[in-house]
Automatic annotation (TrEMBL):
<protein>
    <submittedName>
        <fullName>Uncharacterized protein</fullName>
    </submittedName>
</protein>
Length: 87
């Protein structure tokens, strides 16, 4: 969980953040911290809409690369040549 000090520093500096919610980069939220409480954080997106997110998500500056632990697998899986129906 992100700390009060980190959130306050991001808010004061108006740091553009990436909020990682799952392994798909398409589901990331990009914006700046507006406010927070014990369980949630308000993020203002570029289009000025505000999103209320849980503090348990991963918050990081947008210019940092996405951690590999939160990336989708990049290698393709080869199809199995043998199937159970071929018998």
């Amino acid at each position: 969980m992100i700390t009060e000090e980190q959130l306050d520093q991001y808010r004061v500096d108006s740091t553009l953040l990436r909020v990682i919610r799952d392994v798909s980069p398409a589901n990331d939220v990009r914006g700046i911290v507006v406010a927070w409480d014990d369980e949630t954080v308000l993020i203002r997106k570029k289009n000025r809409r505000v999103v209320k997110l849980a503090r348990g998500y991963v918050y990081q500056p947008y210019e940092n690369e996405r951690p590999p632990a939160f990336m989708l697998p990049q290698e393709t899986i080869a199809p199995d040549d043998l199937s159970d129906d071929a018998e």
